[in-house]
Structure to design on (441 residues):
């Protein structure tokens, strides 16, 4: 929505890569992949991650990307995702050890790690960590300065706290899902980006880093209760303000920023592609209309919502007259705030993103680079996705946890099935963490 940002779009030649080619431009800042092991502003911060799936691992990845020494505590059981650990990018920049929390000495081993850590992250259902003997009470008693981060969907308290759930249910309950999509038909599902990662991971990272600052100043750790419903609701703050002022209708597809406005919407092109239009400000709108080939004085008043359907029809008909990449070439390098809707592989080849190194290739995998960027202490892609148990001996040495190195589970072979294997069914025992150990559980 900035009135100073020019949105460059790719030309027809650059917008669409050959099928199956995910390699970005040669200018992908490969130096990031070769950054020193200690790179990043969180160098020296030790993090214990109790393995799960979803927002917890992504939050730990963010900390690891910024230089933290993240040790992921994996279980000997197969991965519930059915994905090869070598391709799970949320486990990059981490080291993995194997610990069976159900064994007699499993909790004590985790406690030994927690005593030496600055941050611990877990994503069990409320009460499970306590029953396993690695809850915040035990961990903070052993390490009073520890920041204990808890990632759940419903939160630690409330009627739904012990219930199972997933991203789609959390954002539905928080009111966010009902804002997304057209007025007719079902809401549009934003993958699991809005709940798990925006409302979950990012709030957990913000919380544990804020608590770490406090712990460094006072010597006192604390528990961070990061719930996806809380974070997702918090993300809608601006909309609540607009609702209170009467400038937002409590329904999707009727407002300025939810696709209801014809100059902040997505249009199909003649070849079945899509163009995203965000020409909110008057000067950008004038440029958009001019490049679209329409006369501004011949169009309905853009400030009258009653004329929006007619204005939308005019724009839609015009976009249908040419292919996506032809329109991308028209709007390239202008301030019309129009961009082609790209696939993942196309995004990796976008000239602007390639120039910045937004996507890079490291350890044989094309992947998003480190974000955000730091001028003095840049992060880097130091390690490939951690294979479960591969780092048990070296973590035992580096962290000084002898009992970890002596455990029979130590192994450098993957404990997960190949990517084609079906996911293991979750263990729903109320006294144990489910095998699908995620915040939703």
């Amino acid at each position: 929505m900035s009135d100073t940002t020019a949105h460059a779009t790719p030309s027809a030649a650059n917008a669409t890569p050959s099928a199956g080619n995910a390699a970005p431009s040669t200018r992908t800042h490969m130096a990031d992949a070769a950054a020193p092991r200690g790179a990043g502003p969180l160098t020296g911060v030790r993090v214990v991650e109790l393995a799960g799936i979803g927002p917890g691992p992504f939050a730990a990845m963010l900390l690891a990307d910024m230089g933290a020494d993240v040790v992921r505590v994996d279980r000997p059981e197969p991965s519930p995702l059915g994905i090869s650990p070598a391709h799970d990018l949320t486990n990059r920049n981490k080291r993995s050890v194997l610990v069976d929390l159900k064994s007699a000495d499993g909790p004590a081993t985790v406690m030994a790690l927690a005593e030496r850590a600055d941050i611990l992250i877990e994503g069990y259902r409320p009460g499970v960590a306590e029953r396993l003997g690695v809850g915040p009470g035990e961990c903070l008693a052993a390490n009073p300065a520890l920041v204990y981060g808890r990632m759940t969907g419903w939160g630690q308290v409330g009627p739904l706290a012990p219930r199972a759930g997933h991203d789609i249910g959390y954002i539905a309950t928080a009111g966010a899902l009902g804002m997304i999509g057209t007025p007719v038909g079902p809401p549009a599902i934003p993958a699991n980006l809005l709940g798990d990662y925006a409302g979950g991971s990012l709030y957990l990272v913000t919380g544990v880093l804020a608590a770490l600052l406090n712990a460094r100043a006072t010597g006192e750790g604390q528990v961070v209760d990061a719930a996806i419903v809380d974070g997702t609701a918090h993300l809608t703050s601006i909309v609540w303000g607009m609702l209170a002022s009467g400038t937002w209708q409590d329904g999707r597809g009727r407002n300025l920023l939810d696709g209801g406005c014809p100059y902040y919407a997505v249009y199909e092109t003649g070849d079945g592609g899509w163009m995203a239009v965000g020409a909110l400000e008057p000067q950008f709108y004038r440029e958009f209309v001019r490049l679209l080939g329409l006369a501004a004085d011949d169009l309905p008043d853009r400030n009258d919502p009653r004329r929006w359907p007619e204005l939308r029809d005019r724009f839609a008909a015009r976009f249908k007259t040419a292919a996506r990449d032809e329109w991308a070439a028209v709007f390239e390098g202008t301030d019309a705030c129009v961009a082609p809707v790209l696939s993942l592989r196309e995004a990796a080849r976008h000239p602007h993103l390639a120039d910045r190194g937004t996507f890079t290739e490291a350890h044989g995998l094309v992947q998003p680079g480190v974000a955000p960027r730091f001028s003095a202490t840049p992060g880097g892609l130091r390690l490939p996705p951690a294979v479960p148990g591969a780092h048990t001996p070296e973590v035992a040495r580096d962290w000084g946890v002898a009992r970890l190195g002596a455990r029979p589970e130590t192994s450098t072979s993957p404990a997960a099935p190949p990517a084609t294997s079906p996911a293991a069914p979750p263990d729903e025992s109320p006294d144990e963490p489910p095998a699908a150990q995620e915040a939703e559980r």
Observations:
- Residues 1-38, 407-441 have pLDDT under 50 and may be disordered.
- The longest strand covers residues 69-74.
- DSSP finds 16 helices and eleven strands in the chain.
- The two ends are 37 Å apart (CA to CA).
